[in-house]
Amino acid sequence: MDYTGKVAWITGASSGIGAALAKELAARGAHVVLSGRDEARLAEVAADCGETLILAFDVRDEAALADATAKAIAWKGGVDIAFANAGISQRSRALGTDMQVYRDIIAIDLLAQIAFTQGLIHHMSARGSGALGFISSIAGKVGIPLRTAYCAAKFGLAGYADALRAELSQSGVSVHTIYPGSVATNVSRNALTGQGIRRDRSDKAIDNGIPADDAARAMLDGIAAGEREIIVAQGMEAGMGELRRTPESLLDQVAGMVANGYMDKLEHE
Fold first, then answer.
1. pLDDT beyond 90 at 269
2. % residues pLDDT > 90 (the chain)
3. Is CB count within 10 Å lower at the N or C end of the chain?
4. CB 6: neighbour CB atoms within 10 A?
5. Does residue 257 surpass a pLDDT of 90?
6. What is the pLDDT of residue 1?
7. In a domain, 182, yes or no
């Protein structure tokens, strides 16, 4: 994939991986659409991205999302690439985690990202082209302690992406699931405690993680190469991800079911 002239929309673009993706996409010639809740922080990212469109809203607000989707599509006549990236993590034992924390994390990390994608797949399918990037996590491949809500959401996002990839396999729209390990961002500081409070401190693993700019480059290189699963991790985390990597033959098999009419047959049984 050549990113030149493509319109790329990123949720969670005000910091971390989202901001790094925006800057790298712009450097590769893309026009970027930046979304997040904080318009001022989005404007700071936009200053490094050339011509941009800022659409600030809460990803859980489906009415605002629908309005933003219409604006993103209208900006330059379509959205070519979309990154479901917005999310929040967790640092708490299941035994000490309020149920509301599960609801909040799943609402942001899973349901809002599905709603974001559902608003674009008709548009992309009708055009017969497009790419969808889902930012899951190594914690979406392997259950990691202190992250039960986060793992549930990220495993769920990967499952949605896998099924969607198969459904869209004949449409010209590609689906890429990205599994970062520790990336040097504020993800741990912003993580929720068991009582739903911002943790406000980082982890050594995160502080010593892959620089966000390097991670963004690896993600975009993987999409450009047509990789369906993109593991961006180092050390033990990379090993975990590779152990749980879905075999290409299995992804081909499921896509083949669709090519052979599986969905039509099942719907008309």
1. no
2. 99
3. C
4. 21
5. yes
6. 80
7. yes
Domain presence at residue 1: no
Kindly list the catalytic residues: 150
Asked if 40 contacts 16 with a C-beta cutoff of 8 angstroms, the reply is no
> How much is the average pLDDT of 255-264?
96
pLDDT band at 201 (very low <50, low <70, confident <90, very high): very high
> Which parts of 140-203 fold into alpha helices (H)?
148-167
CA dist 151 → 2, 115, 212, 238 (Å):
33, 19, 21, 17
Residue 211 has what pLDDT?
97
The amino acid occupying position 214 is D
Q: Distance between CA 15 and CA 26 in Å, rounded?
A: 15
Q: Is the pLDDT reported for residue 236 higher than 90? A: yes
Range of the domain at 137: 7-267
CA-nearest of 182, 149, 173, 176 to 162 is: 176
Q: What is the mean pLDDT of residues 79-90?
A: 97
What CATH number corresponds to the domain at position 65? 3.40.50.720
The DSSP secondary structure of 15-35, one letter per residue, reads: SHHHHHHHHHHHHTT-EEEEE
**Beta-sheet pairing, 183-184 with 229-232:** unpaired
pLDDT(247) > 90: yes
Is residue 2 a part of any domain in this protein?
no
Q: Where are the alpha helices (DSSP H) in the chain?
A: 16-27, 39-46, 62-76, 99-106, 112-127, 148-167, 204-207, 212-224, 235-243, 248-259, 262-267
